[in-house]
Amino acid sequence: MEGLYIESSALTSILLEDSREFDAALESVNRPILSALTLLEARRAIRRDSRAGRIDAQAATKLLRRIRSLRTRSQVLPIDDHVLEQAEQDFHVEPVR
Questions:
Q1: Is residue 97 part of a domain?
Q2: Is 62 a domain residue?
Q3: How far apart are CA 59 and CA 92, in angstroms?
Q4: Residue 97: per-residue pLDDT
Q5: Spatial separation of the C-alpha atoms in residues 42 and 28, rounded to whole Å
Q6: In this structure, what is the dihedral angle of CA atoms 85, 73, 3, 36, given to the nearest 10 degrees?
Q7: Where does the record place the PIN domain (predicted)?
Q8: For residues 70 and 34, is the Cβ–Cβ distance under 8 A?
Q9: Structural domain tally of the chain?
Q10: Residue 25 or 8, more confident
Q11: Nearest-CA neighbor of 35 among 86, 89, 75, 94?
């Protein structure tokens, strides 16, 4: 597979649940595509769940390490004015999921 865009809620829920299927999908992708916002939101969700006691500190550290690893092998799209302008436009299908 050429590319796979990974959005925030998908990344967060997969990381916090069972990641075997996600890992298998990543193996078939040359270079995953993420936005800088996706990485930020995933890290915040992990820290929030750790503070709330939904995951322990060791699990949070492991998940944050996985996000750093994913970032190094991914194309990270910056959130610049062009991206923000595009995001304001109507999509062909709403809601985007």
A1: no
A2: yes
A3: 39
A4: 57
A5: 22
A6: -20
A7: 5-88
A8: yes
A9: 1
A10: 8
A11: 75
Please give the pLDDT value at position 82. 86
Domain that holds residue 48: 8-88
- Given a cut of 70, whether residue 15 has pLDDT beyond it is yes
For tokens 């078939």, name the residue. Answer: 28
Residue 94 domain-assigned (yes or no)? no
Kindly state whether residue 2 falls inside one of the protein's structural domains: no
Q: Which two tokens mark 36?
A: 């800088």
CATH label of the domain that carries residue 61: 3.40.50.1010
In this structure, what token pair is assigned to residue 16?
């916090």
Helix axes 8-16, 36-51, angle to 10 degrees: 40
The DSSP result for 78-92, as a single string, is P--HHHHHHHHSPPS
pTM over cut 0.85? no
**67-84 pLDDT tens trace:** 998 899 899 999 889 878
